[in-house]
Each structure stands twice: as C-alpha cells, then as structure tokens.
C-alpha cells in the first residue's frame, strides 16, 4: 500500500509505503528482506529497508515526495528464501502553485 497517491511536492504521503510478501500458494513469507530506493528526485522514505513479520507484512514508513512536480517512483526489492521480486510504485507530486481558490457566488 502507499503507491498511486498524489500529494504536494516535498510533503509526506498520508498512507505509509508498506508491502505484504506472499508465496504463490498464498502463504505469508516471514523474514523476507525488503529494500526501497526512491528514483532520483522522488523524495525520501522513513526507512530504506525492513523485514517482513509473521504475516508477511513490512512497512517502510512515510514517503516524503521530492521537490519537483510530476511522477515520482520507488523501486522495492523483496528477497526471501524463494528468490527475489522487484516492483515499482508511483506517486504524483503536485505543486502548491498549481492549486487555486475559485470563488463561488450565489444569491
């Protein structure tokens, strides 16, 4: 979870970046090493690595977006006794100047 969000540049996303590692059988994978690397300009994560718990879950914490508006990405690598899986999650950073207040008048 935590991918496909949108937020202001240089701001933390409301949903932390987290994964659940499961075997093809659907069983959780405990003890998998999860590493995360933001793409250049894609901000920072609270943690760069974590280990999955007995439920296969691991959280990398808050994702603070980079300072440039547009697509931002984090590559996540999960290593376990079953091998290595790589995935990329994306978020969209929006400039605060892109927002404006539109007055609504009525009678």
Describe it for me?
The structure is a single chain. The chain is mainly β and 107 residues long. Helix content is 0%, strand content 46%. Strand 8 (70-80) and strand 9 (83-94) form a beta hairpin. It is elongated, with a radius of gyration of 17 Å. The model has no long low-confidence stretch (mean pLDDT 91).
Keywords summarizing the entry:
single chain; 107 residues; mainly beta; two-stranded antiparallel ribbon; elongated
Element-level helix/strand string: EEEEEEEEE
Which spans have pLDDT < 50 for at least 5 consecutive residues? none
Please state the structural category. mainly beta
Tell me what portion of residues adopts beta-strand conformation.
over 45%
Indicate the overall shape.
elongated
Largest sheet: 5 strands, mixed
Short description:
The protein has 107 residues and is mostly beta strands. It has strands spanning 5-8, 17-20, 33-38, 44-45, 49-51, 57-61, 63-64, 70-80, 83-94.
Topology (elements, then pairings):
Elements: E1 5-8, E2 17-20, E3 33-38, E4 44-45, E5 49-51, E6 57-61, E7 63-64, E8 70-80, E9 83-94
Parallel strand pairs: 1-9
Antiparallel strand pairs: 2-6, 3-5, 3-8, 4-7, 8-9
